[in-house]
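User: Structure tokens for both sequences below?

Assistant:
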Amino acid sequence: MSSLEPWYEEAFRSDYRRVYAHRDVASARTEVAFLAQRGLAGRVLDLCCGFGRHTLALRELGVDAVGLDLSMDLLREARQLEHASQLEGRLLRGDAAALPFRRGVFDGVVNLFSSFGYFGELGDARMLSEIARVLRPGGVAILDLMNPAHVRANLRSESSREGQDFLVREARTLADGGRRILKDVELRFADGGIRRWREDVRLYSETEISSLLSGRGLRVETVHGSFAGEPFGPQSPRMLITARS
């Protein structure tokens, strides 16, 4: 791994799906049902779509969804999904901080499963600016973020998990006064292969993210604590922001 390569390029390789098999289309369908209740419809961008599980679930509901991700490995994995034909011509590779779309072309943008906080504060701000740019007036943006208070209160410093042909070990620490979570990952395969990387994700409070969105013309409408629609609070596992342009 090159020292110049961002951590998220090393983390999201083709083995992601089997190591994190629980992040599947079935769970995506449940989450997408909640998004539809929040008014998500029309032409929608699934930003940082991975292997397209939420894009597929949206299309199954009749939403005109397209997905974008930086990882070509994960985009190729979409071919293995059941009903993958629904994603044909709907997934593309691109940079979340420099979207290859015209201004105001989407009715909605979703950014799911903690796929935010990767680029440093300036890069994260550019990503939000791009979301605002591609939304039409009145369009909706939904961000699924980690809840910093919950992360700090429930941090597991170490964990390990064994699969059929791999062992993954994870060590977690907080940095920058608890505003960043660092995770050192070691992935060992039965064939002797080893991959290691350090994840570094900025945690944004509700106040911080609301201010960043407001500064880009996106008004926060609701904040939920889970995909069950629970109110947001310190113990909420998620921070689901719905904002409108």
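Moving on to the next sequence.
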Amino acid sequence: MLQAKTALITGSTSGIGQAIATRLAKAGANVVINGFGDANEIEEYRASLESEFGIKAMYSGADMTKVDAIEAMMAEVKSTLGPVDILVNNAGVQHVSPVEDFPVEKWDLIIALNLSSAFHTTRLALPDMKEKGWGRIINTASAHALVASPYKSAYVAAKHGIAGFTKTVALEGATFGVRCNAICPGYVFTPLVEGQIADTAKARGMSEQDVKEKVLLAAQPTKEFVTPEQVGEFAHFLCTPAADQVNGALMQMDGGWVAQ
């Protein structure tokens, strides 16, 4: 269904981004993976996408906090695979601290990576999407794009910013065949979260199961994690004709968190 489309997924060397990249490759899109990690593991993953799905896959190690690196990546993608048809702004980072103690450098990092990078990739991809008359921009937001939690000021601010940015881009692209939406997951079970569970259990003297249920999933009525694969399926749906009239939506995948 997505044959000959080029999909760029930022922050896709693991977790949610990797699941989205895999699902779009399965649908026939050529994919660009981006992020940091072990070089051998990244190459193994990139090669596996090509061999399993018969598509082209390239890797960019661009630092998404640096404007010049983003611009260079977008130019390289266009010259190698063609203009970006599907842009998934997924790169992100978290830091937890009270506002008065929040490190300024952490604030700047989170705003740059979680919010500003989406602006830069979008501004560079949008002209070609408009010219083609088709494009899909998917922003990985969060339940924290809709509600707040203590000690996550930068993350919540960035995700609320992504929510507003999504709506604005959706309006600007509406008559050009471009659709922009945000997926808003609750807690997703990724290797990063798995490590946090073990660390939290040790620090609090709790079992890992109690950490899952009483700490991480306390806000999610289903008491179940979202899986990366579920987010990948949702992202794929937003690229199908069935979602042609889905535009500017903040789509919750949070087990009922925001419904409370």
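User: Anything stand out in the second?

Assistant: Residues 6-186+227-253 form a domain with the Rossmann fold fold (CATH 3.40.50.720).
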